[in-house]
From TrEMBL:
<keyword id="KW-0067">ATP-binding</keyword>
<dbReference type="GO" id="GO:0005737">
    <property type="term" value="C:cytoplasm"/>
</dbReference>
<keyword id="KW-0547">Nucleotide-binding</keyword>
<dbReference type="Pfam" id="PF08279">
    <property type="entry name" value="HTH_11"/>
</dbReference>
<dbReference type="GO" id="GO:0006355">
    <property type="term" value="P:regulation of DNA-templated transcription"/>
</dbReference>
<keyword id="KW-0804">Transcription</keyword>
<dbReference type="GO" id="GO:0003677">
    <property type="term" value="F:DNA binding"/>
</dbReference>
<dbReference type="Pfam" id="PF03099">
    <property type="entry name" value="BPL_LplA_LipB"/>
</dbReference>
<dbReference type="InterPro" id="IPR004143">
    <property type="entry name" value="BPL_LPL_catalytic"/>
</dbReference>
<dbReference type="InterPro" id="IPR045864">
    <property type="entry name" value="aa-tRNA-synth_II/BPL/LPL"/>
</dbReference>
<comment type="similarity">
    <text>Belongs to the biotin--protein ligase family.</text>
</comment>
<dbReference type="InterPro" id="IPR004408">
    <property type="entry name" value="Biotin_CoA_COase_ligase"/>
</dbReference>
<keyword id="KW-0436">Ligase</keyword>
<dbReference type="Pfam" id="PF02237">
    <property type="entry name" value="BPL_C"/>
</dbReference>
<dbReference type="InterPro" id="IPR013196">
    <property type="entry name" value="HTH_11"/>
</dbReference>
<feature type="binding site">
    <location>
        <begin position="115"/>
        <end position="117"/>
    </location>
    <ligand>
        <name>biotin</name>
    </ligand>
</feature>
<feature type="binding site">
    <location>
        <position position="111"/>
    </location>
    <ligand>
        <name>biotin</name>
    </ligand>
</feature>
Amino acid sequence: MMLDQRILKLLKETPGIISGETLAKELGVSRVAIWKAIKRLKAKGYALSIHKKGYLLEERDFFLKEDLDNLISSSLLFREAYLYNEVSSTMDIARELAEQEKRAIVIAERQTSGRGRLGRAWESEKGGLWLTLILHNPFPFKEAYLLTYLSATATAKALWEAYGLPAKVKWPNDVLVQEKKIAGILLEIKAEVDVINYALIGLGVNINNPVEKKEFLLPATSVAELLQKKVDKLPFLSQFLSIFEELYQNKGNILPEWKKLSLTLGRAVKIITSSETILGVAQDIDEEGALIVQTPKGKIKRIFSGDCFHLRDLTP
């Protein structure tokens, strides 16, 4: 473990101020080395304050590389974890790594250019979980749609397991709690003919980060807002990766599990696609991943993508 990460670990585990002398003794390095490392950490954006008696970590809501390495040590899908304090987007980093055939997860404490579906901006401040998974040679091309359903299902289940939040899924790629958006999924695929070279699954989860109250497609919320306290992000990540891998290995369970958690099926909906607006009742997800909507006139529509709005009824 690099010195900077070892210092962060000790600072995170120490509730108050810890002296440079203690850090140097614990880590077997000079106080000068400690001082230089502290300067590097401050330059990276870690909230460290310097006192006469030593150093204080004022904000502890971040991951340690050691924790991530431990999480993926038994993974069948991922071999490496990349952790950044700030990046433009974890998807951008992951795309470069995927071209190098890395089987990895990429996490950033903050994104400056996070985005969701259709390139929409996604607020990605510190406190949230901003993650991209790199999957090589995943499902056959015709089953690629399952990756979005898989990721949303794993996210909702992990929010329940980690924090007791009754999360639900909304077509096509949102996770909600109390009808407010808490997480979103972004899927990007590189394929040739009918073969997927790799898939990037971007996941953004509002955990301890401040959320915008502006209502775009949906009002937003966070774990901290719902529980009225800040929480540790690691339990969620641990549950998410475990559930994700279990469903990945048993892909026949993905759609049934998604349907159990769905807020969309059985609801009156308005779907806006690139070519039309559809009103009707969401009936099902078919074997090709399409949302089946029955219009008021009884016509059946198969929809593969679009913005979905839940309605109280179909009254014009």
